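I have a small job for you when you get a moment. Would you make up a two-line entry for one protein for me to read? No commentary is needed, just the two lines. Write everything out right here, beneath this request.
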Amino acid sequence: MAIPRCGADVSRARAEEIIEAAIDLLKVFVGLRYARQMRLPHTTPSRNRETCFLTELNGEVKWAWHGRSLEGAMIAGDPLGHIPPCTKTFAADLLNMGLSGNRDEATARLLDALKWFGDGSFEESAGVQIVKWIAALERLTGTKRLLGGITRNFCKRVALLASGLGAGTVEEAYRDAYRAYDLRSDVMHGSRSQDDEQLSRSAGFVHDLTRAAIVGALSMHHLLSTRMGDGRVETMGRFYDQIASQHEAVFESLHRKLRQPAQSMRNSP
């Protein structure tokens, strides 16, 4: 992976951005339960109780830990061994395209989503984490301004990404997306404190949903940007709509069921 010729300040900024994106991809693959504090060494950490460096000695790459305590758990063997080779290839393609000065919309949005996900890992408040993770999902799925049906459109598209572009079961992913968006709205609209205990109990499933959706977005990016060479926002929207049409009956049924409790609460005296 090489940086195209450009000014020293531009090349440095571009290199750091892509390295941060690579670190955020590792967080997606490994999970924040193990990789929460991974960062560029010269950036400011949220805590300084421990530090983890990736070092190379005699051609062998190893993790080096330093500090009074370790966060999470050490992962034995290959921490990325469970990731399909094609997904690793998709991630490499994204990083290579990110180095280009002519990024398409699909590349820019996925890099932005990774940054939202990674930034959320440094937050102490579960509510702020959820808001940032939902921001990552909105960046991936919001391809146009909608006057109505924003939640419905969000849930459909997140469900498609989290289920492997509709290859898996979309029902559970849709329910999780609906619930996650409600939690985000509670924080953003002031009906729930960002440190609410319910948010702490719910952060885990929002984290897992976001990870799954980002992996799905890598597949979508590979198809649109790498293979088709068309990562325009309009193409992304048409792609979402085409896959969603195959599950429209399921989405419509879920939307009606999930709206009923909310409407009952609003209509209650």
In short: The radius of gyration is 20 Å. The first strand starts at residue 50 and ends at 57. Strands lie at 50-57, 60-67. The longest helix spans residues 197-227.
